[in-house]
Amino acid sequence: MIKLTVVDRNGTEQKLEIPEEINLNLMEVLKASDYEILANCGGMALCATCHVQVLEGLDQLPEPQDQEMDMLDTLPNAGSDSRLACQLRINEQLEGIKVKIKGDLV
Questions:
Q1: What span, in angstroms and rounded, lies between the C-alpha atoms of 83 and 102?
Q2: Residue 106 lies in a domain
Q3: 35 or 105: which carries more pLDDT confidence?
Q4: Among 10, 39, 45, 67, which residue has the least CB neighbours within 10 Å?
Q5: 81-106 pLDDT tens trace
Q6: Degrees, nearest 5: CA angle 100-105-106
Q7: Mean pLDDT, residues 60-66
Q8: What CATH number does residue 40 fall under?
Q9: How many CB atoms lie under 10 A from the CB of residue 43?
Q10: Partners of 16 in the beta sheet?
Q11: What are φ and ψ of residue 72, in 5° steps?
Q12: What are the residue boundaries of the 2Fe-2S ferredoxin-type domain, all occurrences included (predicted)?
């Protein structure tokens, strides 16, 4: 099981346990866990509505690809610890990370 922590927009923390063999990305898991994430583009790194801030474990994640970086560059509240949840595949690299949901709901 992959264990990670999610902080919602209200500051509420919840620990999630996700089966390693699940073939999903973090955005899909967050939506399935009833977090409010629009994911307008369906996970194509084209809308940034699944923007998360990585509070812990950023150094263990793969480097963002150019398309993700380009989209993050359009966000006024993105920082060096920002990622798009749709671009983070559920695997052992996510073990122990802590993310805060930042994406817009509009």
A1: 10
A2: no
A3: 35
A4: 10
A5: 999 999 999 999 999 999 999 987 76
A6: 150
A7: 96
A8: 3.10.20.30
A9: 18
A10: 4
A11: -60, -35
A12: 2-105
Q: Are 45 and 82 in contact (CB under 8 A)?
A: no
pTM of the model: 0.94
- Name residues whose C-beta falls within 8 Å of residue 50's C-beta, 6 or more positions apart in sequence: 26, 27, 30, 37, 38, 39, 43, 84, 85, 86, 103
Q: Which phi and psi angles does 55 have, rounded to 5°?
A: -85, -30
Q: Which residue reads 């990585």 in tokens?
A: 54
Residue 79 falls within a domain, yes or no? yes
CA angle 59, 61, 62 (to 5 degrees): 115
Residue with tokens 């359009």: 74
Coarse DSSP helix, strand, coil percentages of the chain, rounded to the nearest 5 percent: 20, 25, 55
The total of structural domains in the chain comes to 1
In whole angstroms, give the CA distance from residue 86 to residue 47. Answer: 10
* Amino acid identity at 76: P
SS3 (DSSP) at 14? strand
